[in-house]
Design brief:
412 residues; six-stranded mixed sheet; five-stranded mixed sheet; globular
Length: 412
């Protein structure tokens, strides 16, 4: 069974032993773009990059070779409310994985030359996303849904916010956010739980840092969403991103919202895929996503469209949204959707990396161990009435925003 142990300094260690040939180790830190200000926008993502740039005892190439040289995988990700560093290795290399990750977490050098180079790399990353119409549509949509919150800001920041940053800014931010009470270590796979806890305790248990500063708690749902936003690019296809701002992950309606999302836009059997693509040929790819944050969430529909068919496609999407809001889902469709979600979760949960992410993310969100059975039972319990009620609560004009990226007008 999964187990959580809290060290005296507040750091939590979650062990998830299971039959496997490998082990996944992750450090989850409650520090993301939402904890920033307009001045520090992008600093969490910048820190993520810099932790791979060496420590006093390891050069950057030493870090990558130590993981990849053993056939493993090594990566990190920054989101709105957290940052995660993780490694996936054959099971006999658990000690090496813990040693490397904790060395990065504690002793990142942030050398000036690497800092300047990586800043340019991140700016190029931002430019790359600016050239991708689907990324532009989604970024503009999220900004429109959360106009008065850092939830609407780009995780990567902007060239203007990154330009004045110095290594001392990153070190100061790490000292204020990379704290034991803000950190969860998760280990999943084939290992001895007692030995694994001892490894993490030896590396991180002696940290005596001040308690985590009170996190910035801007009001995610303050201000009405911007109804409509558009951008032009040198493209041939129109990109649509339609979204609704909604409740957060601790709301019990999240299970019904997840089922609603799956009915509408998850997979080739979904209503939107069938109606927009299969029956009318209005889009090659269309889908939906339900995403939750601590105190807010967003339901989104995205599609790439022929500009001449964009209005017809949007009208079709709106008809499907109205249908799920106004008519009860049949017992057959509801059962099929619940089976899809439960089966998808169970199959994914066989992977040790998925287990690691599940326990790390739910521990950050709820402050406790969430068992897989709780997720499955929550989905299984959703009724047709629940789906209709949550659709009525989410799919409201006052919570809606529409983002277009359209072909640039040709000048004569």
């Amino acid at each position: 069974m999964p187990h959580c142990e809290t060290l005296p300094n507040g750091l939590r260690i979650v062990t998830v032993p299971c039959e496997a040939e490998s082990v996944a180790v992750g450090l989850f830190i409650a520090s993301g773009s939402r904890h920033e200000t307009a001045r520090t926008a992008g600093i969490s993502h910048f820190i993520e990059h810099m932790l791979f740039k060496g420590t006093p005892t390891r050069k950057p190439i030493d870090i990558s070779r130590a993981i990849e040289g053993r056939g493993g995988m090594f990566n990190a990700m920054t989101g709105e409310e957290s940052t995660c560093y993780y490694a996936h290795l054959p099971r006999e290399y658990l000690a090496e994985a813990v040693d490397i990750l904790t060395d990065m977490y504690l002793h990142a050098s942030i050398p000036a030359d690497e800092f300047d180079r990586e800043k340019q790399v991140i700016i190029e990353e931002l430019r790359m996303y600016a050239d991708e119409p689907d990324s532009v549509a989604m970024e503009n949509l999220q900004r429109s849904l959360f106009p008065k919150s850092q939830l609407g800001a780009s995780v990567g920041g902007t060239p203007d916010s990154l330009a004045p940053m110095r290594p001392t800014d990153l070190r100061r931010y790490i000292r204020g956010h990379y704290l034991p009470s803000n950190t969860i270590a998760v280990i999943a796979g084939d290992f001895d739980p007692g030995a694994a806890v001892a490894l993490v305790r030896a590396a991180l248990g002696g940290i005596r840092r001040a308690s985590a500063a009170r996190p910035r708690t801007d009001r995610a749902l303050a201000g009405r969403p911007v109804a409509w936003v558009s951008a032009e690019r040198d493209i041939n296809q129109t990109q649509l991103a339609l979204g609704y701002r909604t409740f957060g992950i601790r709301d019990p309606r999240k299970y019904a919202a997840t089922v609603m999302d799956a009915i509408l836009g998850r997979g080739m059997s979904s209503r939107l895929f069938q109606e927009v693509r299969e029956k009318r040929g209005l889009s090659y790819d269309i889908g939906s996503r339900m995403q939750f944050f601590g105190d807010a969430g967003m339901f989104t529909v995205t599609a790439g469209l022929d500009p001449a068919k964009a209005d017809r496609a949007l009208a079709t999407v709106d008809r499907e949204l109205a249908r799920i809001r106004e008519r009860s889902v049949s017992a057959v469709e509801l059962r099929r959707t619940r089976d899809f979600l439960v089966g998808n979760f169970r199959l994914g949960h066989e992977r040790v990396t998925n287990k690691m992410f599940f326990y790390g993310q739910t521990m950050l969100a709820f402050g406790r161990l969430v068992m897989p059975e709780e997720q499955v039972e929550g989905i299984r319990a959703v009724t047709s009435a629940d789906v209709k009620a949550v659709a009525g609560a989410i799919l409201r004009d006052s919570a809606r925003s529409l983002s277009w990226v359209i072909p640039r007008a040709k000048r004569a």
